[in-house]
Amino acid sequence: MGLKCGIVGLPNVGKSTLFNALTSAKALAANYPFATKDPNIGVITVPDKRLDKLAELVNPKSLVPTTIEILDIAGLIKGASKGEGLGNQFLANIREVDAIVHVVRCFEDGNVVHVDGNVDPVRDKEVIDLELLFKDLETVEKRLDRLRKQAKSGKKEDQKAVAIAELVKEKMEAGIPARAMELDDEGQALIKDMFLLTAKPVLYVLNVDESSVHEGNQYTQAFTQAVANENAEVIWISAAIEADIAQLESLEERQEFLEAMGLEEPGVNKLIHAAYHLLNLITYFTAGEKEVRAWTIHRGWKAPAAAGVIHTDFEKGFIRAEVIKFSDYVKFGSEHAVKEAGKMAVEGKEYVVDDGDVMHFRFNV
Question: Are strands 318-324 and 358-363 parallel, antiparallel or unpaired?
Answer without folding.
Answer: antiparallel
